[in-house]
Amino acid sequence: MLELERDQKVKEATDVLTVEDFDSVEFWVGNAYQAAYYYQHALGFEPVAWSSLKTGNRKYASYVMKQGGAKIILSAPYSPSSEMGAHQLMHGDGVKSIGLTVRDVDVAWQESLNRGAKGLTPPTEIQDEFGSLRYATISTYGDTIHKFIERDNYDGIYMPGYHKYTRDVDTEFKGIERIDHIVGNVNWNQMDPTVSFYHDVFGFSTFIEFSENDINTQYSALKSKVVRNYNNLVKMPINEPALGRKMSQIEEYVNYYHSAGVQHIALHTNDILTTVKEMKSKGVEFISVPQTYYSNLSDRVGALDEDIEKLAELGILVDRDENGYLLQLFTKPIQDRPTFFFEVIQRKGSEGFGKGNFKALFESIEREQEERGNL
Ligand code: FE2
Predict the structure, then answer these.
(1) Which residues have a beta carbon within 5 Å of ligand 1, which is an ion?
(2) The CA-based dihedral angle spanning residues 63, 66, 69, 70, taken in that order and rounded to the nearest 10 degrees
(3) Distance from the CA of 210 to the center of ligand 1, in angstroms?
(4) Which residue ranges form the domains of the chain, and what is each CATH number?
(5) Which of 32, 130, 195, 299 could join 156 via S-S bond, C-beta 3.0 to 4.6 A?
(6) Model confidence over 154-202: pLDDT tens digits?
């Protein structure tokens, strides 16, 4: 792991683009109604707003799912000839837009274009009874976009055009606090250009790098660099495949997503034991490591607040660095294609990504890959 210095140029650029936090993430899916059921009953997200034929939207159905500060939008097209329909056919269910809260949309738009971003939607103001909201969109890796959102003058749940949504059935469990990081998979040799894009256009800095020596097994490998904004609330690792004896899991993703795209979103919880237990009881499937992982865990990570037997029972992974430790677990892909999955993470001091777990994890992922006939 390499800690990189942030140079002065990067600091100035960060201040110019005004990115403050993740705002929301929009998935384009085949059936938003059914996806919303899974997000609500399996993952604990509350459906809080929607847009559909019944609210006057003739183009697509869309649900705003909220848990703590994490907001996920699930949208599905009514027409195959729409951009959303074409995207769904090509990529299957996946992340279309990573929303970023900015202090000033005009500045974010103008500065990002000046620095070489491809602009899509220029600054646009929309209004309803809750105030006015400004947004703009630019391209990033694959068909994924960033939506800059300025919501200082808006009190509504999500955006004008969305209506309050109420369902009779309660959301039973809410353990997620916020989005911790969002990981992108890019194709061969695209990691450095993508990281440069976040440096040059966003003014983000690189703070951790993992080489194929850090992330490899007997069979396959990947490389990763993590970029972040100035206040560390927006953290985005970028992965690319690396050469191994067999197919990299990143290559498998790109083959099935048919482009670069979002690999996983890490959801932060303050109580991973309860969160994972609840999700498992609702049928969410997680990647599992062999029980031998736990036999010398305390030698590897030292004293923990949690009972190791309970961690072992749920298959939760632990890693420690100089600042503390973290607990994490990864779901299996949550759609038919072996593409997007979620991570559940609890940080206790560590700002890392679980480097000590990479080997055990990737061996588990490879077992899955092999069952799919893709190793
Ligand atoms: Fe992660």
Answers:
(1) 266, 343
(2) -60
(3) 13
(4) 19-164 (3.10.180.10), 176-372 (3.10.180.10)
(5) 130
(6) 999 999 999 999 877 888 777 999 999 999 999 999 999 999 999 999 9
